[in-house]
Amino acid sequence: MDDIVRQSLAKWPNVPSCTGWLMLDRRGNWRMRDEAAQASGAPGTAIRHDALLGFINRNYEVDERGQWFFQNGPQRVYVELGYTPWVVRLSVDAGGALALHDQGGGRFEPAAVFVDEDGAILFADHTQPARIAVLHDHDLELFADHATLADDGSMSGELHWNAQAPLPLQSIRHDEVAARFGFIASPAAAAAAVHTPT
User: What Pfam families does the record point to (predicted)?
Assistant: First the structure.
C-alpha cells in the first residue's frame, strides 16, 4: 500500500466504503462503472491511464471476508470481479521458458491448474491461502501448445511447466471457484443481500 494512502487512512479513518463502481473484468481490465453501467449490469469503461492503473494495482487488497478492494486514499472501493481476483497472461521467452504475470505485472508461480466447464483455465499459486487467477483467453492457444490433453474431449491432461513435474489439469465448476478459494465476486450483491429485508 502506498505511504500516501496509509497517511490518508490515519487522517480520515471513517470514510464510508463504496461498492459497484470498480470492476476487474475477465481479461484483467480495470473498469469504472457509473450509475448507468451498474443499473444495466454493463462492465463499464476501461481505465487506460497508466498512472491510475499503477495506483490501483499497488493498493489492491482483500478484506477478512474475501472481498477485494482498491484503497483509494481514505476510501475503500470494493471491486466487482468478472471471474477471479487475478487475471494472468502466459508468455514464453526466447529460451522456451513459460511465465505467468498478473494484471499488475507481478510474477505468478503456478502450483495447480484447473479447467472449468466452459474451458476456462485457472491457476492457483503457492501462497497460503492460494491466490486463484483465470488465464486471459488470448493465451489459450499458447497454453494448449504446452499441455497434453486427452483425446476424449474431457479436458483432462497436464501442463508441462518448464523443468518441474507436469501439473495435472483438474476440473472445477465455475460456480465453485469463489467458495473454494475464499473470495466474494460481487461485494455489491453481498451488501445488497445484507440490507434486503427478509
Answer: DUF2944
